[in-house]
Request: fold
Amino acid sequence: MLDTTLGHGYADDYAVSWPMAIAPPAQDVDSSDARQYNRIRRRLSVLDAVLGLAVLGALLVTGWTMDLRDLTHRGDHSYGVALALYVILLSVIAKVVGLGLDYYSFRLEHQFHLSNQKFGSWLWDQFKGWLVGLVISILLAEIIYGLIRWQPQTWWITAWAVFVVLFIVFAQIAPVVLFPVFYKFRPLENEELKQRLVSLGERAGTRVRGVYEWKLSEKSKKANAALTGLGNTRRIILADTLLTNYSTDEIESVLAHELGHHVHKHILKSIIVQAVVTFIGFWAVKSMIRIAVQREWFSGQYDFANLPLLVLVTSVVSMLLMPALNAWSRHNERQADRYAWESTGQVAPFISSMNKLADQNLAERNPSRWVELLFHSHPAVSKRVAAAEAWAEKNQLSART
Reply:
């Protein structure tokens, strides 16, 4: 999806009427609201990560994870049922501990006038998100510990392969199964825009199965767009907030960026990168569990009281790899941006859409270097605008010679 937390800019449409390759003036100064909003969000994300690690560490250090495991075995449950009950208890604990931060995040969006969602709707979404996460967590836990019992020496390699397959499956079914759980979608009624976007997709070499309006305004004032799904589920989704406030040229430039990911095979590359990261994660988990069993922290690899250790190790691995993954993602985004300019032949709609998205989503235009390196998966808006202007200037010089 298009990153919508990128900066602060204009909210009007006049820029798209300018001649091709002539860009509107860049805005480089962040508003105080943008700086404060993003500073708070970063602190919340760090606090959430620290709190999660602290809960996992406490369960392991205090031995509470053993108590939870013993509790699930009461009633003479089978191993699989006991494991499912353990995951439910762990999930409830994590949700209760983090609910305060979740609520603060909800209030933060209202404080900065970025949300339309009522408390009841937010609470319902929280429950649905928890339930979906719980079902997926139980499925993954059953797979992992089933493989540990079946293949105690090589379980982690098989589990890695299964997880890669599941990653692809979830990417395919998400638009038709997961997204509708939280948002409403309907076929785009603007036939002219629909045909324009479908044609853009065909020029990019991808067959789009449908163009849908995403009813984002029911919950948020932000805007977004995406090319989602794989194969038969591939579709374009456009937030109604985007359709209302952006010109056809701007929407086309936004989608052209998304199609740039397809042209450069970023989806395939992401699957490969995810496979590598998952392999590293499973190797680290296997090694730590083996050490823990040797030190008699647990009765065996199959003792699911070690699940907090598994989650802790994978979380640490993800955090350590995040700066490198963000750098790679920013590289991909720059490639997608360039494709947007080349495929549409102009940069003015791209720049005006970036300005308006940045303004609408109240984001920092010029984050510090360390903030961008550690937290941002997309280049700063100021850099994207500057790159577009440089590309346009280069093309103008080439046309004159």
About this structure: The chain has one domain: 14-400. The first helix runs from residue 32 to 62. The two ends are 38 Å apart (CA to CA).
